[in-house]
Amino acid sequence: MTQLDLASLITFIPAILRVTTPILLAGLGVLISSRAGVLNIGVEGMMLSGAFAGVVVSAATGSATLGFLAALVVGGALGAALSFAVHVLKSDLILSGIALNMAAAAGTTLLLFMLTGDKGMSGSLSSQVLPSLTIPVLAGIPVLGTLLSGHHILTYAAFLAVPGVGLFLMRTPMGLRLRAVGENPESAEIAGINVRRVQVGALVASGVFAGAAGAFLSMGYVSWFSQNMSAGRGFIALAAEVMGHGSATGTMFASLLLGIAEAASIALQGVGLPSELMQTVPYLVPVIALVVHARRRQRLLARA
């Protein structure tokens, strides 16, 4: 490997981890709700609202920690609101999630204009930035230390959450009840499990993960909020969960694949190809992957 190739690799891998982080966080949230039988279509709106809340609270208090906590609270609250619409008002889950996404896009734009007089970047609402983390053990290793140390603290949290979520779903009594509700809610009800309570908790937890993903976008990528800055990453997270076959590890690898696509589209914008074409890559890859996934599933069902 030449020095140029090594330098490109050292630059590209951290970029992959950076763009993968919000997709993975939101994808794990979608996984939790999906296994409970309540697919969180509103994850895009929860991310966007979390990003907005993080910047506003951080700017008002001067504390990145309080901004991050506000993003988690707002995400969880929207998860509870979606659950209220579905379980109490008896509205359709998919339509309610779509409505939440639309309301979040319009609401954050309106609030941003009210606070700053500008619906673009909120320059007057500059937030504190959540810190990066240097791991001494890794930092001293040539090349590997550069690749794996010094990333944003939420990047490490996202990847550490993968085994945590996997163990929760597969090895804990609460995770067992959650999966039982998702697979057969009628049987779970007969077994004495409170289906509504489990699904409410799953949607709230999903919203908290989405809020964390939004906080990373506005307090990790940059230190401000802009209109619709989630840019469809919530929908990409939905694709990551489907591509991951309902497992935390699978969701992680699918998120990495989609992160590679997004990082590559950014890197290739300077090679002479139309930037508009390159910007479609992160959205074309999940579509292609989902088509392949659907065809493979059809073959398996046909054999069965």
TrEMBL record:
The chain crosses the membrane at residues 6-31, 38-60, 66-86, 93-117, 153-170, 200-222, 277-294. It comes from the Bacteria. It holds the Pfam family BPD_transp_2. It is found in: Cell membrane. GO terms for cellular component: plasma membrane. Its main location: membrane. It is a multi-pass membrane protein. InterPro entries: ABC_transp_permease. Keywords: Cell membrane, Membrane, Transmembrane, Transmembrane helix. GO terms for molecular function: transmembrane transporter activity. This is ABC transporter permease. The lineage of its organism: Bacteria, Pseudomonadati, Pseudomonadota, Alphaproteobacteria, Hyphomicrobiales.
